[in-house]
């Protein structure tokens, strides 16, 4: 198959590959002449007809679009995949590549979602550089102003909001989180909604950590994120949650247990060669405990 095929050409190729006759597809859906015109790109089928044809193939629309694009994601879906693949703001190199890819797409066509995603990514990088949310909040404020006006949030909206919770104060986050969880639950059987669930709890916990309040609430949200991360084997999030839970143990006076836990986490980070995450957490641990282990894990 070649890229940029017509919809009709792809439908025909799939039908032939399934070894289906024309009548096997058009029967109960449309006339034979209509199918002939569609497969030869002489007529664009309606949404209802496309769905009905794909049901004959036992195929959903997402897979069809993937095949039609020569087994590749379209440019926007590829960027979303790259964004979700950046598990931590320490990966500034990946953020820079993402921003370059977004700019490349925006040069071809304007897309409000990609503009917002770019701002969220830039804010994440700024936080990593400055280690405070002041300037990050300023960057994403326009994104939230737009989203706040919407009566309903869809998947891409949820993706943005769960990655910019730091823009809100604690009371607002509680209110927003309740609404977010309702919408995330609606998407529980769609795409990677589990990742959104993980993000909302983990990022809420990080906000609480940044303002040094309510360690019990922070612990609650870290455990929620940890449980969900275990369900999908999101190892980096699991390790990050375990690290921050160890910080809480240390601050509660359980220093021996906390030290054992961070040693395990640092060892796994080192084995996985997650250099940026390891250095970030080593720096955090030195600040929390006064212990410097950089030489041990370098």
TrEMBL record:
Q: Which SUPFAM superfamilies match?
A: lambda repressor-like DNA-binding domains (SSF47413)
One Pfam match, given by its short name, reads Rgg_C
Q: Specify the protein name.
A: HTH cro/C1-type domain-containing protein
Which GO molecular function terms does the record list?
DNA binding
Xref: InterPro entries: Cro/C1-type_HTH, HTH-type_regulator_Rgg, Lambda_DNA-bd_dom_sf, TPR-like_helical_dom_sf, Transcription_activator_Rgg_C
What sections of the protein cross the membrane? Answer: none
Indicate the segments annotated as coiled coil, or none if absent.
none
Which segments constitute the HTH cro/C1-type domain? Answer: 10-64
């Amino acid at each position: 198959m070649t890229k940029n095929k017509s919809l009709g050409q792809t439908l025909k190729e799939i039908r032939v590959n399934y070894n289906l006759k024309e009548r096997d597809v058009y029967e109960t859906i449309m006339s034979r002449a209509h199918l002939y015109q569609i497969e030869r790109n002489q007529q664009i089928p309606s949404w209802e007809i496309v769905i009905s044809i794909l049901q004959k193939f036992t195929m959903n629309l997402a897979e069809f679009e993937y095949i039609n694009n020569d087994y590749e994601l379209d440019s926007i879906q590829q960027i979303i995949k790259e964004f979700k693949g950046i598990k931590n703001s320490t990966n500034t190199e990946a953020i820079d590549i993402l921003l370059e890819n977004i700019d490349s797409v925006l040069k071809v066509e304007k897309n409000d979602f990609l503009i917002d995603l770019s701002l969220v990514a830039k804010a994440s990088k700024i936080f990593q550089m400055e280690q405070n949310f002041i300037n990050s909040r300023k960057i994403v404020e326009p994104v939230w102003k737009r989203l706040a006006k919407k009566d309903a949030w869809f998947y891409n909206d949820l993706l943005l909001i769960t990655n910019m919770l730091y823009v809100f104060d604690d009371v607002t986050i509680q209110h927003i989180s309740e609404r977010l969880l309702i919408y995330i639950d609606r998407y529980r059987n769609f795409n990677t909604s589990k990742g959104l669930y993980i993000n909302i709890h983990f990022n809420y916990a990080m906000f609480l950590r940044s303002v040094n309040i309510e360690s019990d609430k922070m612990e609650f949200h870290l455990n929620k994120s940890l449980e969900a991360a275990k369900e999908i084997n999101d190892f980096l999030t699991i390790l990050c949650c375990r690290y921050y839970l160890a910080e809480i143990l240390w601050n509660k006076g359980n220093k021996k247990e906390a030290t054992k836990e961070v040693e395990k986490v640092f060892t796994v980070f080192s084995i996985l060669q997650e250099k940026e995450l390891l250095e970030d957490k080593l720096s955090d641990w030195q600040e929390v405990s006064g212990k410097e282990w950089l030489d041990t894990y370098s």
